[in-house]
Amino acid sequence: MSYWLFKTEPDTFSIDDLKARGTTGEIWDGVRNYQARNMLRDQVQVNDRVFIYHSNCETPGVAGIARVIESGVVDPMQFNPDSKYFDPASKPDAPRWITVKVAYELHLAKPVSLASIKAHPALQDMQLVKRGNRLSILPVSEEQWETILHIEGNG
DNA sequence: GCCAACGTTGGC
DNA sequence: GCCAACGTTGGC
């Protein structure tokens, strides 16, 4: 089992929205970066745990945890001409964008802000805090996972 | 294959 | 809203 961090803009889709989906979960659609796609397609597996990270908002940070409930999911938005994620170059017999489905697990007792992650000595190697990081899917080590969970009384 | 122009991400 | 740091596109 592996650990990940998925970014989302809470104005568009937040941890609360994911919670509202319940055990049905949600397809993590809209990832249109090949490096992120490759991780979703090749490495993210069922039962992996995911930090849901809120970006582009007042207090960026880890808001909660989800679980991967299905892998190898074809992102349906690539075939939807009305979607901003429509990709006319992707063909149904050779879909370009593969993702996973996740389901809500919990909110952190207290969200862990990007500022507190940056301030923690044990988290300096996280790709999240690396300069110029823009990937929306990032691997998290077990040690980093536990460290974040124990910040400010979580876990 | 090079690289300038352009678009996007995302913290601040 | 600003802007640094990327990724992508397309002319050549």
Describe this structure in words.
This protein is an alpha+beta fold and 155 residues long. The protein is built from 4 helices and 6 strands. The protein binds a DNA duplex (12 and 12 nucleotides) through residues 7, 9, 33-35, 55-57, 60, 114, 131-134, 136.
Question: Keywords, please?
Answer:
alpha+beta, 6-stranded mixed beta sheet, 155 residues, 6 strands, 4 helices, DNA-binding
Q: Would you kindly provide a brief summary of this structure?
A:
The chain is 19% helix and 31% strand. The protein has helices spanning 15-20, 34-42, 114-119, 142-150, and strands spanning 3-8, 26-27, 49-54, 61-74, 98-113, 137-140. A six-stranded mixed beta sheet has the order 2-5-4-3-1-6.
Task: Please summarize the sheet with the most strands.
Answer: 6 strands, mixed
Give the integer mean of the pLDDT values: 95
Total DSSP helices: 4
Distance between the termini: 18 Å
Major beta sheet, strand line-up: 2-5-4-3-1-6
The helix/strand class is: alpha+beta
Proportion of beta-strand residues: 25-35%
Low-confidence stretches: none
Give me the Rg, rounded.
Answer: 15 Å
Shape: globular
Percent of residues in helices: 10-25%
Order of helices and strands: EHEHEEEHEH
Q: How many β-strands, per DSSP? A: 6
